[in-house]
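Reminder to self: tokens first, then the designed residues, so the page reads top to bottom the way the pipeline ran.
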């Protein structure tokens, strides 16, 4: 349980760092948007403001996901992270649509930005702060695999591009005389945000829909499973992921003359071997006498054949 608590604490620390950084960036970008009148800067401000809301949702998600299983949630609360990630995706999508509309309006109406130097300085400070946050998030993700933190990490990766785009847009508008650079960059940022929202939604949806593990991960699991000499076959293998917790259940064939005590010993040995290679997996094994199947079709096939 200590590993679970450590992961939860790391996830909370990353979420709190994200909230702190977003709060600082909202303040300085608000000043930058006011002083420059830049659509690109406004888009960056809108994205960061939504990041702040999303970071609060991330903190709520990882806090709930870190709670132990209870009578009403026997498989734990891991899917709270996927729900938090989807909430963030919706916010990113709304931000992208609003920014695209604003950029098109400015592109049609024309106009120039002002105080490019201040806007560039604000964006440079934002880049430094964002790099520091991303470094800490990568450290946390390496140990927890939190989908909520991963989605938040994606936000701030896109923020780096947004801030660089703001600097380029302001420089082109003010110093190169390209008056349409700012709204065009604003529109490009909107499209980038929309694409990021689409990509970020996929893993969250897969978790909520109990998508199977990737094939290579399942293959490694089956290879370890096949090592036990008393297994006669394995069928009806089912896998899923909830937060940073993996779940597996399967049926195994053993000698039909085996005693319950011996079969229980074999199941314990199988589980111990699997846990050594997949420590974060909750395993449910159902022993069957050799040849017995509960379902027909693909799920009744022995997956150890050919190994």
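Designed residues (307 positions):
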């Amino acid at each position: 349980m200590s590993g679970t608590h450590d992961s939860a604490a790391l996830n909370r620390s990353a979420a709190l760092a994200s909230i702190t950084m977003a709060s600082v960036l909202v303040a300085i970008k608000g000043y930058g948007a006011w002083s420059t009148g830049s659509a690109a800067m406004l888009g960056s401000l809108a994205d960061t403001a939504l990041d702040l809301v999303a970071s609060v949702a991330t903190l709520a998600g990882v806090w709930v996901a870190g709670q132990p299983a209870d009578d009403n949630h026997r498989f734990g609360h891991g899917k709270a992270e996927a729900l938090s990630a989807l909430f963030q995706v919706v916010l990113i999508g709304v931000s992208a649509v609003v920014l695209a509309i604003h950029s098109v309006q400015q592109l049609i109406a024309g106009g120039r930005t002002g105080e490019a130097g201040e806007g560039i300085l604000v964006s440079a400070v934002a880049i430094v702060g964002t790099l520091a946050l991303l470094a800490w998030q990568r450290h946390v993700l390496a140990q927890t695999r939190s989908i909520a933190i991963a989605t938040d990490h994606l936000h701030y990766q896109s923020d780096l591009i947004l801030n660089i785009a703001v600097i380029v847009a302001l420089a082109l508008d003010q110093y190169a005389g390209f008056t349409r650079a700012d709204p065009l960059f604003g529109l490009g940022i909107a499209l980038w945000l929309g694409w990021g929202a689409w990509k970020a939604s996929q893993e969250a949806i897969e978790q909520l829909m109990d998508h199977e593990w990737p094939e290579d991960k399942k293959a490694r699991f089956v290879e370890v499973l096949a090592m036990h000499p008393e297994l006669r076959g394995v069928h009806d293998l089912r896998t899923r992921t909830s937060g940073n917790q993996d779940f597996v259940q399967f049926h195994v064939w053993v000698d039909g003359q085996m005693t319950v005590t011996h079969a229980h010993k074999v199941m314990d040995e199988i589980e111990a071997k699997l846990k050594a290679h997949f420590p974060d997996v909750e395993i449910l094994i159902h022993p069957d006498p050799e040849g017995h199947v509960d379902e027909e079709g693909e799920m009744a096939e022995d997956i150890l054949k050919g190994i």
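The helical segments are 2-36, 39-65, 79-109, 116-144, 147-175, 181-208, 215-225, 260-277.
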